[in-house]
Amino acid sequence: MITLSEENYLKCIYRLWQDKGQKITPTAIAESLGNNPASVVDMIRKLTDKQLINYDKKKGVELTAQGQKDATMIVRRHRLWEVFLLEKLDYHWDEIHDIAEELEHIKDATLADRLDKFLGFPEYDPHGDPIPKANGKMAKRYSTTLADVKTGGQCRVVAVKDTTSQFLQYLQKLGINIGTKIQLIEKISFDNSLVISIDGAEHKTVSQKFGESLLIDM
Amino acid sequence: MITLSEENYLKCIYRLWQDKGQKITPTAIAESLGNNPASVVDMIRKLTDKQLINYDKKKGVELTAQGQKDATMIVRRHRLWEVFLLEKLDYHWDEIHDIAEELEHIKDATLADRLDKFLGFPEYDPHGDPIPKANGKMAKRYSTTLADVKTGGQCRVVAVKDTTSQFLQYLQKLGINIGTKIQLIEKISFDNSLVISIDGAEHKTVSQKFGESLLIDM
DNA sequence: AAATAAAATTAGGTGAGACTAATTTTATTT
DNA sequence: AAATAAAATTAGTCTCACCTAATTTTATTT
């Protein structure tokens, strides 16, 4: 059985591995988790014994096939719960991460799959990150933003890149949620501002920064 | 902050207190949790320090006002999650308890209330136990069974008293679920068998024992 | 009331997962 | 290459939540 801490280490290593193809050192893990490097060394030994990672001073930490599988399933659970919290319980973008951090550790053979089905097999979580499928496969991180839409183009909001409360409150004010349709009316070449129409309503102008923070589906 | 173990002890004490107005001894707690009495003594000290219980050799363990409040909220979360697992994720009656046992410990100020709302403020969990409201109040344990219905009476299944797989499989076979309408056609006085009509379909005969295992709403 | 049984408690120990402080190894400067 | 800085590791400690074994207290029999 894999413990809560072990799961958190695995997830952390997985994230570091995805972020950059860099070598994963004990210090990097320690910093990422806010733990002491000494604790990390202990855990590296434990995870190595369980064959979830390999550690080599030259190559750093690497996930084994099993470790990758386990980590992927933790990420799957995390992202599915995030969708649940946002869509079903009406939480805001900035509240869901910490709760999902706890929910992801609930262990039951069929829970993730049932939740997945209940949610309609979502492809992406509310931050634009792809949700691994039951078989471990997943799409690429969502990256098309409103700023990539061609003039006249129509799109639909799928997630946000920026989850600061400033941005989320601004979205609230503009009436933009997940699923909201947006049409790009004009791109101002001077500063790349965007004139948009939200759900067919009157035109509004938003900044380039705004456009780059909104992940969309064309 | 209250730890996972502390929560489990509180819940256990709460259950023992509800079950019977008896004195709650360390041994009773130990047996109920499958722990050693020595461990229970340790925890009694800890919970006493936190002002969640009072302990007196004569009176046994008692919950303080705060302890009662906390325990009630754990029970609330447990029962709400049970409803969620059964109604939304299509789990069976016998699978939900253990998962809810984990979910109940997820700590977030508004989670229970949001879940409650999402589920439509259910009064009872799938075992017929009342779900404490946000203010801590709760109805009495559900106790009306199919055997209490008068001849000709109509009712609706709200929960089961018996959760053995034999009974649940039998229900499955008869097409009975939560919400199913049942009319009592006749009560056979010889052995108290019940002739019923499930959702208006043809008549079927079930035993007294069966009738007493089905909790209903008239 | 004395003997016995049961329950409660204390004392000391274990493993998980964190820590600090000290030391060793590796990398980077000068 | 030697000096210095940074990273990794070891050694020992702490808390939590459990344990066993021994002892004390309380209750029940005879």
TrEMBL record, chains A, B:
Keywords: Activator, Cytoplasm, DNA-binding, Iron, Manganese, Repressor, Transcription, Transcription regulation. It is found in: Cytoplasm. GO terms for cellular component: cytoplasm. Its main location: cytoplasm. It comes from the Bacteria. Residues 1-64 form the HTH dtxR-type domain. The keyword Manganese applies. The keyword Cell wall biogenesis/degradation does not apply. InterPro entries: DtxR_MntR_Metal-Reg, Fe-transptr_FeoA-like, Fe_dep_repressor, Fe_dep_repressor_sf, FeoA_core_dom, HTH_DTXR, Iron_dep_repressor, Transcriptional_repressor_C. GO terms for molecular function: DNA binding; DNA-binding transcription factor activity; protein dimerization activity; transition metal ion binding. Pfam families: Fe_dep_repr_C, Fe_dep_repress, FeoA. Belongs to the DtxR/MntR family. In the presence of manganese, represses expression of mntH and mntS. Up-regulates expression of mntP. PANTHER family: IRON (METAL) DEPENDENT REPRESSOR, DTXR FAMILY, TRANSCRIPTIONAL REGULATOR MNTR. Homodimer. This is Transcriptional regulator MntR. It comes from Mucilaginibacter conchicola. The lineage of its organism: Bacteria, Pseudomonadati, Bacteroidota, Sphingobacteriia, Sphingobacteriales.
